């Protein structure tokens, strides 16, 4: 499992929590710490230790310990070292979350995005294959839908991307799909198309800790309310064809998103039925991870005002490049085939984010 940007680190630490919650997986975390604090992993392990039953077996206790490895996925030799430690067949599967993910930034430094998001994925897959690790859950994104023709968005929607970031996600989905087609007896892969994760683990021990001013709406509101950022907010456009004119997104609790990864990993097991009705030999599928409920920017601001008691000041400005009016998932395929259900509501997301924010006003470097 790997993370190379703040949001994936937030997602990554919560995915590790979800895996450790079952005590069925031993987690190896691979991260270059380009933009993330190793402290997050220490805290996740602490949550797992605190949740161990009094009569925990040695195996249970071991599942609470993370093998934290530092490696950059753009360096083949660094990836190889991780796999060599466990030998052929020693690693059961990979959850690949490492990516740069800022839509606007990707239009300014496309080669960095193609190297870090696409080349690194090829190197990871090549090395994993060499070590007979042939199961992958890939962190994709709703961004692959571009401006979707229908709302809510089913997985059958044609893919299009308006930014190099979105194109890297489509490319990696295609690479994994082609690999599973080429080697249907060996490889199994699932892509998870994230909608908009928000919130934090209710303990307040792990959460989003962007370096500098957060680019995403939810963490920015949290940072403003706690005083880590000035009380100024730009709402990027209110002239969209939406109920209140501001963009609509499908926000789901990061813990729901994380537990979706566990279901996906389990679905790669030999006894899984998820590929039974596959339309080809390839053991590959893509699923939306969302709630199927769209909320506007102004609705999120109001929900965070209610949760924090903070009076946000905002200014309506022009549209942000790359934004689309509405990204709301049709979540029924993941619900039917993976048993996925995003159950936490908006108030819980806001409350858990605020709990994290107030306990960690300076992120992990308090
Ligand atoms: C949400 C809405 C903005 C900030 C994110 C990730 C992307 C992908 C999908 C992972 C938009 C508006 C925001 C602000 C604003 N995730 N906004 N003022 O753009 O949907 O994309 O989730 O793959 O990588 O970036 O999320 O939180 O940036 O924006 O008005 O200061 O809030 O215009 O409509 P987005 P976001």
TrEMBL record:
Gene3D superfamilies: NAD(P)-binding Rossmann-like Domain (3.40.50.720), UDP-galactose 4-epimerase, domain 1 (3.90.25.10). Its cofactor is NAD(+). GO terms for molecular function: UDP-glucose 4-epimerase activity. SUPFAM superfamilies: NAD(P)-binding Rossmann-fold domains. GO terms for cellular component: cytosol. CDD domains: UDP_G4E_1_SDR_e. Residues 24-352 form the NAD(P)-binding domain. Pathway: Carbohydrate metabolism; galactose metabolism; Carbohydrate metabolism; hexose metabolism. Transmembrane segments: none annotated. Its EC number is 5.1.3.2. It holds the Pfam family GDP_Man_Dehyd. Keywords: Carbohydrate metabolism, Isomerase, NAD. It catalyses: UDP-alpha-D-glucose = UDP-alpha-D-galactose. It is an enzyme of class 5 (isomerase). It comes from the Eukaryota. GO terms for biological process: galactose metabolic process. Mutarotase converts alpha-aldose to the beta-anomer. It is active on D-glucose, L-arabinose, D-xylose, D-galactose, maltose and lactose. PANTHER family: UDP-GLUCOSE 4-EPIMERASE. NCBIfam families: galE (TIGR01179). In the C-terminal section; belongs to the aldose epimerase family. In the N-terminal section; belongs to the NAD(P)-dependent epimerase/dehydratase family. Homodimer. This is UDP-glucose 4-epimerase. It comes from Trametes pubescens (White-rot fungus). The lineage of its organism: Eukaryota, Fungi, Dikarya, Basidiomycota, Agaricomycotina.
């Amino acid at each position: 499992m790997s993370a190379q940007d703040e949001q994936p680190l937030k997602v990554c630490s919560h995915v590790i929590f979800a895996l450790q919650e079952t005590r069925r997986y031993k987690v190896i975390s691979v991260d270059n710490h380009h933009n993330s604090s190793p402290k997050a992993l220490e805290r996740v392990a602490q949550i797992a230790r605190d949740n161990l039953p009094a009569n925990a077996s040695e195996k249970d206790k071991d599942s609470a310990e993370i093998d934290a490895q530092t490696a950059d996925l753009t360096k083949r030799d660094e990836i190889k070292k991780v796999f060599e430690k466990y030998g052929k067949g020693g690693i059961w599967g990979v959850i690949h979350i490492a990516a740069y993910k800022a839509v606007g930034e990707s239009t300014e430094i496309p080669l960095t995005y193609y190297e870090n998001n696409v080349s690194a994925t090829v190197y990871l897959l090549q090395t994993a294959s060499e070590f007979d690790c042939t199961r992958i859950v890939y962190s994709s994104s709703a961004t692959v839908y571009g401006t979707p023709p229908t709302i809510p968005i089913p997985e059958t929607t044609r893919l299009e991307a308006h930014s190099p970031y979105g194109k890297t996600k489509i490319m990696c989905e295609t690479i994994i799909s082609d690999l599973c087609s080429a080697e249907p007896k060996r490889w199994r892969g699932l892509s998870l198309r994230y909608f908009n994760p928000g919130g934090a683990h209710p303990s307040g021990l792990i959460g989003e800790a962007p370096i500098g001013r957060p680019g995403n709406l939810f963490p920015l509101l949290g940072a403003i309310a706690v005083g880590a950022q000035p009380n100024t907010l730009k709402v990027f456009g209110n002239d969209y064809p939406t109920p209140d004119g501001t963009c609509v997104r499908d926000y789901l609790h990061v813990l729901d998103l994380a537990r979706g990864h566990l279901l996906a990993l389990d679905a790669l097991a030999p006894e899984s039925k998820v590929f039974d009705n596959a339309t080809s030999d390839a053991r590959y599928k893509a699923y939306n991870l969302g709630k199927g409920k769209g909320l506007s920017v102004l609705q999120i601001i109001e929900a965070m005002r209610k949760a924090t008691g903070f009076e946000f000041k905002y200014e309506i400005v022009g549209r942000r490049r790359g934004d689309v009016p509405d990204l709301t998932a049709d979540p029924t395929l993941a619900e039917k085939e993976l048993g996925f259900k995003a159950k936490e509501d908006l108030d819980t997301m806001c409350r858990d984010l605020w709990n994290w924010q107030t306990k960690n006003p300076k992120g992990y470097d308090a």
